[in-house]
Give the backbone structure.
Amino acid sequence: MLKKLILIILIGVLIMGFSTKEVVGVISTNKGDIVIEFYPDIAPKHVESFMTHAENGYYDGTTFHRVIPGFMIQGGDPNSKSEDRGMHGMGGSAGKYYGIGDENNSESWMLPAEFSPTPHDRGILSMARAQSPNSAGSQFFICVADAHFLDNNYTVFGKVLKGMDVADQIVNSSRDKGDNPLERIEMNIKIVPKSSVEGFE
């Protein structure tokens, strides 16, 4: 618990030094990098949770475990670090306690819905969830095509600034009957100042 508290304080220091709009997420894969901006104005808890996980290495070594051409690529499940593909897509929790789940069991923490009218256009970063609106954990997806049937039902919390060509490569990967790429497409995610990214100096 102390470790998590220290991490949250460190992230707070990061955000104080650079506002959330001055930092970006860099998702690094063997296909290239995807650079994302965040929407803290419409989904502050989702942005905070994602950044917490990125800073503590939670996402590192996870894969894009679900890819559907003409729709989206999904990743961020800690279960995908395992070779047991049957468990991919079944795990993940929020980066801190937001009032949903058992406060003493971090694996049970979920995010409250932060739905908005922001459309699920190509390039949008949104959070996956189960049937309940308040069941998002750590899994996220990037739309590779407009998916407006998701609008007001899933939480949009960012958008790709650079690297949609990488997302397009990932979504067109050979996959099994569960839409899981046959080749492991692992990711590492870092939060960095936007000015440090080539093209945004």
